[in-house]
Amino acid sequence: MPGLAQKLTEKYWIVAILIFGLALKLMLLASDAFPFNSDEAVVGLMARHILDGAWPAFFYGQAYMGSLDATLVAIGFALFGEAVWVIRLLQTLLYAATILTTAALGRSIFRSTRVAWIAAALLAIPPVNVMLYTTVSLGGYGEALVIGNLLMLLALRVWRQEKGFALWGFLAGFGFWAFGLTLIYTLPTGLIVLRKLWHSRAKLATTTATFSLGALPWILEGARRGFDPFLSELLGEAVSGASTGGLSSVLEHSVNLLLLGPTVIFGLRAPWSVELIAAPLAPIVLIFWLAVLGYGVSRLRTKAEDRVGRWMLAGVMATLVAGFLLTPFGADPSGRYFLPLAVPLALMAGDLFTEPSVMRAGRWAYAALGLVLIFNLWGNIQAAIENPPGITTQFDPVARVDHSYLPELVEFLEAEGEWTGYSNYWVAYPLAFVSDERFIYTPRLPYHTDFRYTDRDDRYAPYGAIVAQSPSTAYITTNFPELNQTLRDRMLQRKIEFEEMTIGPYTVFYGLSEPVSPDQLGVYLRP
Q: Would the pTM of this model clear 0.85, i.e. be above it?
């Protein structure tokens, strides 16, 4: 009975931790700490189009991320209406599932409820990077974490009982379609499954068949459009700022990993900043996580029953690091690609607290854990208070747009009858979403201060067709005085009359005497 009472108490702790973590997220959401971003708007627009009967297999303008997130958001829209908070409610629920499945991994790998609740606590009060990318939707990160945890749980079941291999195969294929990032889980867990089922061709065939079934949307779309773009984007071809490849790119990615990676992974800085968070506690937190990593590596030599699980966690981390170094994804040190490391690190930290020497430290050990949690909480609150920029996905200041002025912009455009036109990626889709697509502005304007532009910003071709057929166009820019002057000069050169209005961060060129496109104005060339 005492043992049962202890287990129930520890399970109640996990529930309490989950509730606290959800309350923290909801508090930050209620304070408008997370700016609305264009990637979220695209998810919302996709969900709206799905409800209208148009289901896309992939995220608009991409070929490495499926439409699972938008499909789930569409269900939320059907239940609660079309709103930004519904998108973020889904992310919150997905993260709750991540915390619960992480606790389940703690019990499954280490046979310890202590590991489970400590790991759950470190995820419930996470570093800013984890808080950001599990609250704001970028199209599939929340789903990838849940699928990854389920793949690890199923791989352990296959290893111990030779059960669950068909479901593992389906989830591996489904994750492959939903987001290629799940490959960091599929490869190490796949080795476990392959090793265990090597003796049975029938079971391997079943696993292969269910993988194909899960990946069916990817397979069908690849057959329809050709597999080359899907494979190249899966390997990171579309990453902005990616280097050309070879040894130089590996060295560049190594610098990104070593100099920028640990600080954002351990929560020492926000992904959009290089300044330390909660600097007085930073040394303690750094020592804590280095101790966790050191202990985790040392325990890989164990002959204990949990050895396979430990190597599986290490395999996930190693696969992510290898992918970061060897593919163009390593050119993006913003922090989102490090997100999957949160679960293995939390579990390793929980395992550290089962070490007898640590347990003998008693309250001092738990005091260190408490300081890490306080540090994480401090970082999230500090980031929320410093608004702008808030807890933002934008690490380039020029891309940070204060969309609290969107209602004023919509009111102005409606009064002037400017229903179509041109803008940049960070305005076009939020404007379309909040206005129920009454205002269609295709993202054909540059926002980088060197006038760089990529056609990939134009995610949804039907918008471009609508604007091209419109008898009038307006222009909306943000944070770019040089572009504004270029537009003025080029319109005057073409003897196009126009008016100009500033609304918060938006500069609107309206009342054009004739429609004109950015290509005709030559806005992609520096003046």
A: yes
Question: Residue 137's domain spans which residues?
Answer: 2-238+264-385
Decide: 473 and 515 in contact? Cβ < 8 Å. Answer: yes
Lowest average pLDDT, out of 287-291, 393-397, 470-474, goes to: 393-397
Separation of alpha carbons 269 and 36, rounded Å: 21
Do 381 and 286 lie in a common domain? yes
Is 434 inside a domain boundary? yes
pLDDT reported for residue 527: 54
Taken as a whole, the chain contains a residue count of 527
Helical spans, DSSP H, in 215-341: 216-225, 228-234, 247-255, 261-265, 282-298, 307-326
b/e burial code for range 56-66 (CB count within 10 A of at least 16 → b): bbbbbbbbbbb
Q: How far apart are CA 490 and CA 522, in angstroms?
A: 8
In the predicted model, what is the mean pLDDT of residues 133-154?
Answer: 98
Contact 510/439 with Cβ under 8 angstroms? Answer: no
Strand order in the sheet with 474-478: 440-443, 420-423, 474-478, 506-510, 499-503
pLDDT at 303: 77
- The encoded tokens of residue 329 equal 């994804």
pLDDT at res. 526: 58
Instruction: Specify whether the CB–CB gap between 129 and 395 falls below 8 A.
Output: no
Last residue of a domain, one of 385, 412, 434: 385
